[in-house]
Amino acid sequence: MVASTPHILVAEDNLAMADVVRFNLRNAGFTVTVCRNGQDALGTLQQRSIDLLITDYQMPGLTGEEICRAMRQDVRLRHVPAILLSAKGLELDVDMLRNELGLQAVLFKPFSPRELTQLVRTTLETALKPVLQTPA
Fold first, then answer.
1. How many domains does the chain fold into?
2. 83 is in which domain, residue-wise?
3. Which has the least CB within 10 A, 16, 30, 79, 92?
4. What is the share, in percent, of the chain residues with pLDDT greater than 70?
């Protein structure tokens, strides 16, 4: 059984956007860690127990796409659900990204923080459901 609050990693280089996401998710009861570049985000994923990744598409170090590709190749991380945020709505092949990277969703900026919070809840309920139903 999950003994603690779900831990969400937010990989976002825009400080204002990172603050909005962190504020809303913390108010919804989640534990949130923010990384400002892709390399730090991947390191955090490899070192900590993370229940969900929310990553910006364009970031220094590694892009959100590169972080997700690295996660899916790592047996310890491939189960971690991921949500991609992007300001490049017309430039991305969303279906390809969702299929190749196993994304739960792609949200385009600007997005509703309420919509993101609900998506996080739904994603975590689905992802953690087998864990919560496992007999002790």
1. 1
2. 7-129
3. 16
4. 91
